[in-house]
């Protein structure tokens, strides 16, 4: 904390002392810091509540790494439907890769469209969430049965007019997760 706030030779100085982040003068003495913050709990590190303010008893707490990841100046915050989350949490919430969500947001300013709009097969989910899906739930069940019976993926793919990767996703659980039944 002291080094990154006060030593211009520290690699982290530009993100701390270089942008005006300091620590309270009382914390020059470790005993004063310890009296204010107490012993460091296992698995936690010191976090500034407001990352634009310095280190002080009013602006610091002990936090887990996951909590600290929520409080970074580089986070992209999005508010939709009354919920405020960082981009990575929205991606998890929506069940899509973060890069897919970034790509969508680069093509539209409408959050509803980015979250739920119809997108090409290259950026859509696999399985039922892909608006371009060629397989019905019945076909997926038939595919799973054929693969479980030992038929080759390439033969099954040819029968249904899809790529072998589609057959693989239908049988390994990465697509059509809502369809329960035979799994190869």
Describe the structure.
39% of the residues lie in helices and 9% in strands. With 184 residues, the protein is mainly α. It folds into three domains: 2-69, no CATH class; 77-117, no CATH class; 128-172. Helix 4 (87-94) crosses helix 5 and helix 8 (153-160) crosses helix 9 (164-172). It is elongated, with a radius of gyration of 25 Å. Residues 121-125 have low confidence and may be disordered.
Q: Overall mean pLDDT score?
A: 85
Strand order of the largest sheet: 1-2
Tally of domains: 3
Q: Return the structural class.
A: mainly alpha
Instruction: Summarize the helix and strand pattern as letters.
Output: HHEEHEEHHHHHH
Rg of Cα set: 25 Å
How does the major sheet shape up?
Answer: 2 strands, antiparallel
Strand content: 5-15%
Residue share in helix: 25-40%
The coarse overall form would be elongated
The span between the termini is 54 Å
| Helix run count | 9
Number of strands: 4
Weakly predicted, low-confidence segments: 121-125
TL;DR?
This protein has about 180 residues and is mostly helical.
Q: How are the elements arranged and paired?
A:
Blueprint: H1 2-6, H2 30-37, E1 45-48, E2 60-63, H3 65-69, E3 77-80, E4 83-86, H4 87-94, H5 98-107, H6 111-116, H7 137-148, H8 153-160, H9 164-172
Antiparallel strand pairs: 1-2, 3-4
Helix pairs in contact: 4-5, 8-9
